Amino acid sequence: MSSNLLLGTHGSAATTTSSSATCSEDSMAAVGARAGRAPDTPLPPRARPRTEGGGAATRRRDRLQRAAPSVRAWKRGQRLAVAVRALRERGCGSEEQMAAVLREIEAEVQRRKQLVHQSAERKAIISQCYKRKHSEVYTLQDSFLAPDFLDMVRYCISPDANLHGLLRYTESFSDKRIYRLPVFTEEFCQAFIEELENFEQSDMPRGRPNSMNNYGVLLNELGMDENFITPLREKYLRPITALLYPDLGGACLDSHKAFVVKYSLHEDLDLSSHYDNAEVTLNVSLGKDFTEGNLYFGDFRQDPSPVPNYIEVEHVRTQGLLHRGGQIHGALPIASGERWNLIIWMRSSAIRNQLCPMCNQKPQLVEAEGFGDGFTETCQEDVPETVDLCSVW
Ligand SMILES: [Fe+2]
Prior knowledge:
Number of domains: 2
CATH architecture of the largest domain: Sandwich
Bound molecules: fe (ii) ion
Oligomer: single chain
Number of helices: 9
CATH class of the largest domain: Mainly Beta
Number of strands: 14
CATH superfamily of the largest domain: q2cbj1_9rhob like domain
Largest sheet: 8 strands, antiparallel
CATH topology of the largest domain: Jelly Rolls
Strand content: 15-25%
Radius of gyration: 21 Å
Distance between the termini: 5 Å
Structural class: alpha+beta
Shape: globular
């Protein structure tokens, strides 16, 4: 567990730096909350991504590199102090206990740093060696999308669109701002799962989708970000989220992390309670056939009630659930069958630049590749094209 802050490119077609570069969805609740901002040595600045070059960007990179050693030392000391204080407050009494916990934290930091490089290596291997079964599913087409979903998008981009009108197209659940909507066609879901199974059965390397799910596929590593997930977010989902979640940057969701998770009787059965590293999450049921396994939603993490109020929501094949990333949620165990869900964590740099949603602090930044964790940095002379990343791992 650590606090890492990365910096990458904004709006780039490049892929994210992998799950290892993100605030893990479980770790905040389980460990980060216990340890506060744990010690860390931030990642060194990386090479400037290809989409950004010359001029102001180069000058900014040079400044970052010159400043890096002293900044890193300061940050590490600060974070160690915060971690030690948090551990003492939580009953970590003896020096031996403290040293053991801090060693564990440092080891986890190093492990997660390696994940970033491992993800880039996997993506390169997959790009070169993987033989696709359904190459058409890598480029988003209107024909993949449910007609009712297309109607909804058309309404949202019409001049008089408003929230009240949009709600006619969705099913909403209680006052938690959770909405069910049609997303894909049956035919697309079937082809997509066949592609994912083809990948699963291949000898390609693969990483865990996130720190809570053990089975599934990171879609950036598979090569689906550029021509599928990014246009889905920008062209179709953002007009909807602009009306549903204006306070969470719904109109300016400018990056994402997308993955598919798989549940089956011999693998993961369920998903325990957590919140996501996202302003808005879309969770689409792709199938296959399964029983039970409803999703459940509790309070918004920043607005807990004395007695948590949970609701259960059925997950219907081809349909998606939109919810705030900070809404506490989980998945009940399936009783039979196999379940695949497409998850898109959508992020708004305008929102998270103010406060990291995982550590509730102003983010500190280190350069990274791709979307990273969706933070951006603006310098005086430029240029809104860099993305800063904050991680509590
Ligand atoms: Fe989640």
